[in-house]
Amino acid sequence: MFIEIRPYEKEHLSVRFKAVGEDFSKILKSIKKVPNRAWIPAGYFWIIPADRNSCDTLLNNLYNEGLFRTDSGFDFKNSEPNDSNKPHDIEPLNTEIIGGRDNHSATDIQCILNKLEEVITAKHYSKRTMEAYSYWISRFIRENKNKNLKTLSDTEINVFVNRLALKEKAASSSQNQALAAILFLYKNILGLTIKAPENIVRAKKPKKLPAVMSREETAKIFSLLPENDYGLLIRLLYGTGMRLMEALRLRVQDIDFSANEITVHCGKGAKDRKTVLPVSLKFPLQKHLENVRCIHEADCKEGFGSVPLPFALAKKYPNAGKTWVWQWVFPQSRRWRNKETGEQGRHHIDPSVIQRTLHEAVLRSGIPKPIGCHTFRHSFATHLLEAGYDIRTIQELLGHSDVKTTMVYTHVLNRGGLGIQSPIDRM
Questions:
Q1: Do 132 and 177 meet the contact criterion of CB atoms below 8 Å apart?
Q2: Which of 5, 143, 157, 237 could form a Cys-Cys staple with 376, CB 3.0–4.6 A?
Q3: Residue 264's beta-bridge partner residues?
Q4: Predicted local confidence at residue 4, as pLDDT
Q5: For residue 391, what are the CA distances in angstroms to 138, 343, 404?
Q6: Integer distance in angstroms from the first to the last C-alpha of the chain?
Q7: Residues linked to residue 262 through DSSP beta bridges, in sequence order
Q8: Active-site residues: which are they?
Q9: Average model confidence (pLDDT) for the chain?
Q10: Pairing relation of β-strands 12-18 and 45-49?
Q11: Residue 299: helix, strand or coil by DSSP?
């Protein structure tokens, strides 16, 4: 459980918290007793006025609920802000104390993870990066719980990373991800310098060719997909070369039917790009959007129909979340409900639903290949190369920063035995 209070704009403080069960109810009850508090759905936090009375009310409520502790001898209820007994400010992560301890408690780890979330949010890293870094950092600290973080060197880091490969048979990508998380911890969270960083060993990434389907295999899987929005989305993956999350995050305004193109916002690496809208999918998409619009209008009539907006657009345009152009192209069939505010809305389809739909179709097809949603992206690029399109065009459609990344598809072209005749066939 933790509660975070920070300045919000000029006249308010934001209050965020994570808790479960009875603690959750106590915190919510304490916040709701503060006059003029408000719930900010776009950011999933509460705000209270940034004045002494509001702060005292909130802290006093938390204290009475047993959620706010003070130093022994400090009478919170009867305290006055004099020189000898001033209110306690919430301080940021003290890296000197935490980094210098030889035994790290769960509270220390939570402080580090809170700081990690703050830094990653400021850098606009993805949620997946946050989840991965949190896992590796927590594990690294726990496995070195009796050691001083400030004195750890390349030796301890190498031992941790190598153990992943030797004992857990982790892939090189997992090793390098763990290493990246540890280096991020030292540089951006603790502000510490690793001793002898040049001695840290990075796992060599194997050169693997991506799995690619033939056109016949692709058509067979399509024939086994359901005729609904799940099947339409999977077809769109192959027809556009988009990643799964890029397709799921599409908004209505991202599809230009007149220009036959789709704009992908904040793709991998926070890059925008344009890709092709397949002509054969225009009519199915238009029919799909007609159904989505009917659902959206029905939601609006019931007082809902708002979707989360990226970055700070919700503050700049408070009503934009209910407009048609910002709606998800592939919304969930059911509305979610916020238990604190009663607000309801729709998020995009969960990726696991699409993955499960495809997996079932692949099993029925009997194709002996490791086929996932990303396989359609590989097949899109390879089939374009086979059709004679230049590598630069394909690079732009895929959103690769370096053409070397796109060049891998030249090695998986369907040339039939690499287009050569074996010596044994000449005998």
A1: yes
A2: 237
A3: 273
A4: 84
A5: 42, 48, 10
A6: 75
A7: 255, 275
A8: 243, 268, 374, 377, 400, 409
A9: 82
A10: antiparallel
A11: helix
Please write down the HEC assignment for all residues of 113-151. Answer: HHHHHHHHHHCCCCHHHHHHHHHHHHHHHHHCCCCCHHH
Evaluate whether 354 touches 233 at the Cβ level (below 8 Å): yes
Look up tokens 């908004």; give the residue. Answer: 251
CA distance 232 to 65: 51
Q: What is the dihedral of CA 5, 10, 12, 16, to 10 degrees?
A: -30
Q: Helix axis angle, 215-223 relative to 229-240, nearest 10°?
A: 170
DSSP letter, residue 297: H
Q: Which tokens belong to 22?
A: 């009875």
Distance CA 415, CA 215 (A): 14
Least Cα distance to 224 among 343, 367, 340 occurs for 367
The counts of H helices and E strands in the chain are 16, 9
- Residue 310 CA, chain-centre distance (Å), reads 13
Residue the block writes with tokens 């077809």: 235
pTM score: 0.66
For 276-333, write each residue's pLDDT tens digit.
Answer: 999 999 999 999 999 999 999 999 998 888 888 887 787 888 888 899 999 999 999 8
State the CB neighbour count (10 A cutoff) for residue 253: 14
Place of tokens 């926070």: 270
Q: Are 345 and 307 in contact (CB under 8 A)?
A: yes
Backbone angles phi, psi at 134, to 5 degrees: -60, -40
Domains of the chain: 2-64 (no CATH), 96-199 (1.10.150.130), 213-420 (1.10.443.10)
CA distance 278 to 235: 10
Q: Which residues of the chain have pLDDT under 50?
A: 70-99
Rg (CA), the chain: 27
Q: Using an 8 Å Cβ cutoff, are 192 and 119 in contact?
A: no
Task: Find all residues with CB under 8 Å of 8, minimum gap 6, and list them.
Answer: 14, 47, 50
